[in-house]
Design goal:
By secondary structure, this protein is of the alpha+beta class. It folds into three domains: 67 residues, Structural Genomics Hypothetical 15.5 Kd Protein In mrcA-pckA Intergenic Region, Chain A; 84 residues, Pseudouridine synthase; 187 residues, Pseudouridine synthase. The protein has eight helices and 16 strands. It is globular and about 60 Å long. InterPro entries: PsdUridine_synth_cat_dom_sf, PsdUridine_synth_RsuA/RluA, RluA_PseudoU_synthase, S4_RNA-bd_sf. This is RNA pseudouridine synthase.
């Protein structure tokens, strides 16, 4: 999308940024405008701002040129969406970080859903594919699509029965000392941020966290994080440890932002997650929108009769990369939800 500018006049003064942006992007709906703002593609006075920011007369709204960024992403084959495999009536696809899962109403903008016709062009029944999952904009990894309504129903039945296992890798702030499970229910009415219902357990939407490796102190960080988001600063865990944890995360039924919200509830939000890692969900007027550069990857999806495994492309040391592969490829644990409350995830593989 080419760069555009708009000076705030008396008619726009006092409006929220996501509402006033319609004057610059009449082709987008509210959801599309909020996507642009979340990507920090919209500047007010030269700075990124939140969707709820109230505009003042004379301020300059700038919509940055994002075409070059898209070309940069497209030039790296590993970061492009692609078909990983077809198994029966399921297709397993790769969604890179920095791409939306769902298409906007009307078909505008880039997304994995919008790319389905091209990705599945070689399949005679590819035109019938429907996504069964959605990953956050900043999350990479596997997304499953069904080629028939019957396959979609079977997927949902497997989720309800606890026989659909989704394995993620995450980098968490602080030192997660032991395996743990978060069972707290989530209020997902607010599309921007899910809210933890601390006093209510969810019967199916649990997140299991298993520490695979801990780096203590900024000097020992792996190459990617050390170069990507600056040093670790300040204690983040209940006991005040400073560090970074490579964690295996397992869910069966998912809710919006489930792993991000549950990790924050532990006191170990995803490293770089400005939405759930900050004290306030909404930045003050004039402040930049929270950063969305975090490390979360959906690396394995296990179903009765079908499975897909894809380790993250993070530059992990060989020992940690090996631990990741071993965990992703380990046998499924389908019956955990039937066994009731547990002290934590399964022992370290």
């Amino acid at each position: 999308m080419p760069a555009r500018e708009l000076r705030v006049d008396a008619a726009l003064a006092g409006q929220r940024l996501d509402q006033a942006l319609a004057a610059l992007t009449p082709e987008l709906g509210l959801r599309g405008r909020r996507r642009l703002i979340a990507r920090n593609a919209v500047l007010v006075g030269g700075r990124a701002a939140s969707a709820a920011r109230r505009l003042r007369p004379g301020e300059l709204i700038t919509l940055r040129d994002t075409a070059a960024e898209g070309e940069h992403t497209a030039s790296r084959p590993a970061d492009r969406p692609r078909l990983l495999s077809r198994q029966g009536e399921y297709c397993f696809l790769y969604k890179p970080a920095g791409l939306h899962s769902a298409a906007l109403a009307g078909g505008g903008g880039s997304s994995l859903e919008a790319a389905l016709p091209a990705l599945l062009a070689s399949l005679p029944d590819g035109g019938a594919a429907r996504l069964l999952q959605r990953l956050d904009y900043g999350t990479s990894g596997i997304v499953c699509a069904a080629l028939t309504p019957e396959a979609a129903l079977a997927f949902r039945r497997a989720e309800r029965a606890g026989r659909c296992e989704k394995r993620y890798l995450a980098l968490l702030r602080g030192v997660l000392a032991a395996p743990t499970t978060v069972r707290a229910a989530l209020d997902t009415a607010d599309r921007r941020q899910s809210r933890l219902l601390a006093s209510t357990d969810d019967s199916r939407r649990w997140t299991e966290f298993l520490p695979l490796h801990v780096w203590e102190g900024a000097a020992n960080l792996p190459p990617g994080p050390a170069e990507g988001s600056g040093p670790i600063n300040g204690p983040t865990g209940p006991s005040g440890q400073v560090g970074l944890t490579l964690a295996a995360c397992r869910i069966r039924c998912g809710a919006r932002h489930q792993i991000r919200a549950h990790a924050a509830a532990l006191g170990h939000p995803l490293w770089g997650d400005g939405l759930y890692g900050s004290a306030s969900a909404e930045p003050p007027a004039g402040a930049a929108a929270p950063a969305t550069v975090f490390f979360l990857h959906h690396g394995a999806l296990l179903l009765p009769g079908a499975a897909c495994v894809l380790p993250p492309s993070w530059p992990l040391p060989e020992a940690q990369a090996g631990a990741v592969r071993k965990w992703l490829e380990s046998p499924p644990q389908y019956d955990i939800l039937r066994r009731g409350h547990r002290a934590g995830p399964d022992p370290r593989p």
